[in-house]
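Blinded run. Sample ID left blank on purpose so nobody reads anything into the name before looking at the predicted structure. Input follows.
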Amino acid sequence: MWSYKPHQDYTTKLVSNQYELYAIKTVTGSDKAPLDGEVVTDASATQDQVTGEPQVSLVMNATGAKKWAELTQKAFEGNAEGQKREIAISLDNEVVTAPGVNNGAITGGSSVISGSFNVQETVDLSNILEVGKLPAKTKIIQESNVGPSLGKSNISKSLNSLLIGFGLVMLFMVLYYAGAGIVSILALFANIIFILGSLSSFGTVLTLPGIAGIVLTIGMAVDANVIIYERVKEELRSGKSMLESIQEGFGHSYSAIIDANVTTIITALLLSYFGIGPIKGFGVVLTIGVLSSMLTAVLLTKMLIDGWVSGGKRNITFWNSGTKDALSTLNIDWVGKRKIAYFISGTLLVAGLVSIFTRGFDLGVDFQGGHSYNVQFDANQKVTADDLRNKLATVFEASPVVKVVDTENTFNITTSYLINDNSEGIEEKVAGKLHEGLTGMTGSKISFDQFKAGDAQGDMKLLSSSKVGPTVADDIKKSSFYAGIFALVAIFLYILFRFSRWQYSAGAVIALFHDALITIGFFSLLKGIVPFSLEIDQAFIAAILTVIGYSINDTVIVFDRIRENLGLHPNKSQSEVINESINRTFSRTTFTSLTTLFVVIGLFLFGGASIKGFAFALLVGIVIGTYSSIFIATPLMIDLGGARADKK
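Blinded prediction complete.
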């Protein structure tokens, strides 16, 4: 076997038209090299301890060491004329270096390659020796293509939902909190500028889930303001002055805000670490959004309000005539009604679990692997999901999964046809089969190139396509499982650290399991009933983890007030303190969820088709999470041993 490489001098400058030619002889007489990179355990650039010259140290495993000793022995003995020979090291049929053997057979697996190297050449050579068996073929195991019309439509709808949610939040804050609501809006504008500026600084690509993260952050950004304002209102109603109420309101709210946001950051960081592709982007956006929200909602809001009321010359309003005493006089025995809540939750859980084990889920391509296509037909063509499923079963050799997308006359088609075939051009072959089946069914004359390009002149067009190999699907399942488990463990430990009793942690985490299972159960119960896709995919996992982070927000607000009141009223019974704490924080719990629901509803109603399932999961999860923080987490904490041992 012959090989050549351009001759290089030791200053790495190419000498024009000069080549060094090697005649390579393999020991076995075949084209296969006697040793490959798999036997190399370490290669590093070092220096000769005596001369200080750059060199490369090479270490092999036991198998390689034995074969290396044979090769170096034969090279040292030389050819028939007694001339010593070199051993060529090649990469992609090009000789990288051909060192000679100067001191006999090399045993033990450790070698040194020296010569007139410079430092960079030794680094390059050591990297080549470490890369393993080469040449290695690149295989595309996950691929996604989105046509310009679909991408533009989804982005436009998501931005519209962003504006609608932003408008609803602004309207609520001004109507409910009057002058203080205007301060929140200014802080919210600053928050969006900080988020976009941070994303731009990091060079983050803003994907559809990333836009969803910004939309969600808008709702969560005012949560801290709601917590603070409700506490300020409470202090004002107790007869304190404006300045004193503001100081007390901010001071008593910090612990709840920090605890609530830290738990959300935990889940966002886990999404960033375990997520793949767009979901990692969602986790990054959510992390930046939560940090920015804490900065603007706490620091900036405090600065603006203090600047306005400083010196006592000006006041700021935290209510209007209709919202001054809203939800402030509640006197509900929440602890006494916990068994009713247990029954309601038990019913929902059983119904969801029965559906999961009998009806199952619509697994997205992320979790089962395969080729997925979104195809849109002309409005005049009468196409049904059953027609597509039956016709494509012939060309794909098995029935594909066909679902109606909420965009008019658009279908999602998922098939596992040739999913394990990694040969070149396989995506074109599968798409060609799809085109063949669709043209055969509809009689369309559109060419394959027009179909694939989403040609607006055609009577059917491919809007988007994606491929996920079985390896990636398994990785996504594992990463999703680990993200969920680690999120719950991290939250359990954080709550234990903050509240010093395991009952708080256990009540909170069991409530989170409750929220996640009910949300998952809804996706199984409503599968095929609602007019939009309820796939279990990466976006769904992101939604579940976001629900976990958000649900713990409400729970921490209640727990924080319980802890405070237990210290203030040591002679009251535990049930009295807990009921009073829930009654006093009910407005905060309700309104923090309400502001987030405004933007999630906007995302669900006006966002793109590909994000409806994500928004629906958030919608269900936030409602259930708000309910569980009052009716599940706190009652469970009591039944597990309580926040304290009551004095007899």
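Unblinding after everyone has recorded impressions. Residues 148-202 form the longest helix (55 residues).
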